[in-house]
Design a protein that fits this description.
This protein has 112 residues and is mainly α. This is Flagellar protein FliT.
């Protein structure tokens, strides 16, 4: 048995699992997927001389999902950016209407 096979199998399983649920996956899960994928790819790269032609074909086939995964990541990034902009706008509007003084305080003008 080829020593790289388990890593290729893990990568195939991990990728297909995330792609099947891609429309429901949130940022945290995609970040975890990305970290796991990176770890597996590093292990495969270390053993790349042991890759069979079948392994190479499987890895090439996985590349077809990259665009969909990146698209979902960009969508979530855009949502987060929009949320931050809304929060900034809300903060500015809120601070414009909030008084920077205590309403119970009294001011006295003095003549010079």
């Amino acid at each position: 048995m080829n020593e790289v096979n388990p890593y290729v199998s893990q990568l195939v399983y991990l990728t297909k699992d995330i792609v099947e649920r891609l429309d429901r996956v949130e940022y945290e899960e995609l970040a975890l997927f990305s970290d796991k994928r990176e770890d597996i790819v590093h292990k495969i790269e270390a053993l790349k001389t042991h890759l069979s032609s079948e392994n190479k074909l499987e890895l090439r086939n996985l590349c077809q999902f990259d665009q969909a995964i990146l698209s979902r990541m960009n969508h979530l990034k855009q949502e987060a950016g929009d949320w931050l902009l809304r929060q900034g706008t809300i903060k500015v509007q809120k601070s414009a209407y909030q008084a920077d003084y205590a309403p119970e305080s009294m001011f006295f003008d003095s003549k010079k």
